[in-house]
Amino acid sequence: MDFIIATHNKHKTEEFKRILTPLNINIICADLPEVEETGKTFKENALLKAKSAYKATGKICVADDSGISVDILNGEPGIYSARYSGINATAKENNKKLLKKLEGVKKEDRKAHYTCAIACVGENIEFTVEGYMFGEIGFKEQGTNGFGYDPLFISEKGPLGLISAKEKDSISHRNAALKKFKEKLEELNLC
């Protein structure tokens, strides 16, 4: 089955393909308009993107919104993860800002989690699911694997910047959300 993925992030597209291809789901990229993320939650933003993509294509569309939340920072950067340092911020700039905000914070107080909300919209189809990955923020960037905040995030398997894509997929927030997504697709007889 073909699904349009509503993202401009090539890293997310690669991750979706790695995880969904074994489910006989073909991920198709389309040239879609940017969507203003006006939602107050990851689920709301994912749904905005999926609805916009469905309106533009008329095909089943999948979108995600994801980010990192740090407990001691009251959930920052949260839904603003990609633009934490500004609208066109780079991952390096976002990581630098996060490290600055955590200066002087002890290891035990650096708890954080990634959230991934996935929305699916099609004719008579609309649902969202969420998945999480828990860990902590390190004191410096480690490794070059992954993307975004991965070089700072320390998971149960170690720093995400140092583990393989396969290892990350096995524990990631996106994988957790995609498992729920698959269950929902099976429930709706869509895969």
Summary tags:
about 190 residues, Maf protein, 7-stranded mixed sheet
List the helices and strands and how they pair.
Layout: E1 2-5, H1 10-20, E2 26-29, H2 42-57, E3 61-70, H3 91-101, E4 111-122, E5 125-137, E6 153-155, E7 158-159, H4 165-171, H5 173-187
Parallel strand pairs: 1-2, 1-3
Antiparallel strand pairs: 3-4, 4-5, 5-6, 6-7
Task: Walk me through this protein's architecture.
With 191 residues, the chain is of the alpha/beta class. It has a single domain, classed as Maf protein. Helix content is 31%, strand content 25%. The protein contains five helices and seven strands; from the N terminus they run βαβαβαββββαα. The protein has helices spanning 10-20, 42-57, 91-101, 165-171, 173-187, and strands at 2-5, 26-29, 61-70, 111-122, 125-137, 153-155, 158-159. The longest helix has 16 residues, at 42-57. 37% of the residues are buried. The mean pLDDT is 92.
